[in-house]
Amino acid sequence: MITREQTINFLQTLKLTIRKWLRGEQAIAEYEDIKFRRDICRSCEFFQQKRGLPHRCLACGCNVELKIMFITADCPEGKWGRLDY
Ligand code: SF4
Q1: Residues 6+ apart with CB under 8 A from 1
Q2: Is 79 in the pocket of ligand 1 (CB under 6 A)?
């Protein structure tokens, strides 16, 4: 179950991403950074993979494949951070 706090965290990340995009700044991470994050997430104890469902982070409740694409996103467990291009 996704908590209210998890939803707020995701919406905050989305808001920062959209704000960057509206300013004409890069909002989506480079392929190599997305791959780096994905590799960390897939070996993480909080990574949940269920057949037919999006990959989910049990720490923040986010869809992992979406979250790792946002420059402004960070791992709630400190395993990877925000990007600054
Ligand atoms: S965002 Fe962090 S805690 Fe969540 S699955 Fe990825 S590495 Fe693990």
Answers
A1: none
A2: yes
Predicted model pTM: 0.87
Nearest CA to ligand 1 atom 1: 75
Phi, psi of 34, deg, nearest 5: -65, -45
Condensed to tens digits (0 to 9), the pLDDT of residues 54-84 reads: 899 998 888 999 999 999 999 999 999 999 8
> For residue 22, what are its two tokens?
């509206």
> How far, in Å, CA of 51 to CA of 29, rounded?
26
Q: What is the DSSP string of 24-71?
A: T---B--HHHHHHHHHHHHTSTTEE--TTS--EETTT--BHHHHTTBT
